[in-house]
Specification:
The chain is 33% helix and 26% strand. It is of the alpha+beta class. The model has no long low-confidence stretch (mean pLDDT 81).
Length: 136
């Protein structure tokens, strides 16, 4: 009686393996089609233009923050409203000369309070207001 149970179990196992092995044949056919045969549907490419921000600096947002690090290319600040939010801003071309002049006099130090004007969705500082502390 036990032999019949073992035999029935082995047939059920063989049937399950045969059913699960059938997708492998379909994958082999798809791989062969991709390798050398022509595809019936044409490949269409579409050029997507990057969205350009519209508006003037008066449409931007002012961020009140304190300086974590500042150098000639960028400024890293922490929001005053949310101390866990840290932002990195690169300088707009008009602002680079002003920031270089500030850096020559000592620059912004850790903890200085600043306000940064930026456009939504961008990390470019358009204007920076704030008083740099005395150099160390």
């Amino acid at each position: 009686m036990k032999n019949y149970k073992i035999l029935a179990f082995s047939f059920a196992l063989a049937a399950a393996l045969a059913i699960s092995a059938s997708p492998a044949r379909a994958q082999a056919e798809a791989a062969a089609a991709a390798a050398g045969e022509a595809i019936a549907a044409p490949i269409v490419t579409k050029i997507i233009k990057a969205a350009t921000p519209k508006g003037t600096p008066k449409d931007g947002n002012w961020l009140k923050a304190e300086v974590v690090h500042a150098d000639a290319n960028s400024i890293i600040v922490r929001e005053q409203a949310n101390g866990m939010a840290i932002h990195t801003f690169n300088f707009a071309p008009e602002l680079k000369d002003k920031m270089q002049a500030i850096l020559d006099q000592g620059g912004f130090q850790y903890g200085d309070k600043v306000s940064i004007l930026y456009m939504n969705g961008q990390t470019i500082a358009l204007k920076i207001h704030g008083k740099p502390s005395k150099p160390l």
